[in-house]
């Protein structure tokens, strides 16, 4: 049995506001969970929740991970963009070319995301969150495939992608060159041991796959912080 992806965490200067933004964009339920704090619960087969954690640090560099949101038509793409803008998003330039059909936006705290044009074959059978698109090496794609037990659905030219056997978004890594990393990522994963599993045994397994133990100042009792082979922080939470 392998760990499961429990949550995607956003560090946020204003967690309630950012949670309301993403609840509006994704149409997910916003809850205040006793264990997870401010969180969004998926309304589809995404398979993980989104948590919003308070931080005093301002965003200063491009995130290593972002959402690719899918569209069923050009009108649908334009409506998603319009909804996001009404909720507080803004257009940004991350080097995209004019001929590319996707729209690049940033949420109210500057976290990048893309609204993909209709007809994208790679995301054709995915839901509204088509992918978590990550900056990362082939090695880290292999690591997360083994960590979560998700098969590789793409492995070519050092680009990798995995997807849960139960569906939901793909997680993709674009290969080299990697963006420089000077501070803790604002987006990170929380993984949980299998039901009734042993947290320490899961930590040991992940370390054997190439993770390392780190200290990110986590103050939640029982949460173990690790970094994957590319240095991306993540936490192993107690069994759920």
UniProtKB/TrEMBL annotation:
PROSITE patterns tied to this protein: VOC (PS51819)
A Pfam family of this chain: Glyoxalase_6
InterPro entries: Glyas_Bleomycin-R_OHBP_Dase, Glyoxalase_6, VOC_core
Signal peptide range in chain numbering: none
SUPFAM superfamilies: Glyoxalase/Bleomycin resistance protein/Dihydroxybiphenyl dioxygenase
Residue span, VOC domain: 4-118, 125-239
PANTHER family per UniProt: CONSERVED PROTEIN, HYPOTHETICAL FUSION PROTEIN
Protein name from the UniProt record: VOC family protein
Record lineage: Bacteria, Bacillati, Actinomycetota, Actinomycetes, Kitasatosporales
């Amino acid at each position: 049995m392998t760990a499961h992806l429990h949550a995607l965490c956003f560090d946020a200067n204003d967690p309630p506001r950012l949670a309301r933004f993403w609840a509006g964009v994704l149409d997910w339920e916003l809850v205040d969970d006793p264990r997870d704090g401010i969180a969004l619960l998926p309304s589809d087969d995404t398979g993980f929740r989104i948590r919003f954690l308070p931080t005093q640090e301002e965003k200063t560099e491009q995130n290593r991970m972002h959402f690719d949101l899918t569209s069923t038509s050009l009108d649908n793409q334009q409506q998603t963009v319009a909804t996001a803008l009404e909720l507080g998003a803004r257009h940004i330039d991350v080097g995209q070319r004019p001929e590319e059909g996707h729209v690049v936006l940033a949420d109210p705290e500057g976290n990048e995301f893309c609204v993909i044009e209709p007809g994208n074959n790679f995301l054709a059978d995915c839901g509204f969150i088509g992918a978590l698109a990550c900056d990362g090496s082939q090695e880290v794609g292999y690591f997360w495939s083994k960590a979560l037990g998700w098969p590789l659905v793409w492995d070519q030219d050092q680009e990798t992608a995995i997807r849960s056997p139960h569906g939901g978004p793909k997680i993709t890594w674009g290969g080299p060159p990697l963006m420089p990393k000077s501070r803790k990522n604002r987006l990170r994963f929380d993984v949980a041991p299998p039901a009734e599993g042993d947290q320490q045994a899961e930590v040991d397994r992940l370390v054997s796959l190439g993770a390392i133990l780190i200290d990110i100042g986590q103050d939640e009792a029982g949460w173990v912080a690790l970094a994957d082979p590319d240095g991306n922080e993540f936490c192993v939470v107690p069994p759920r």
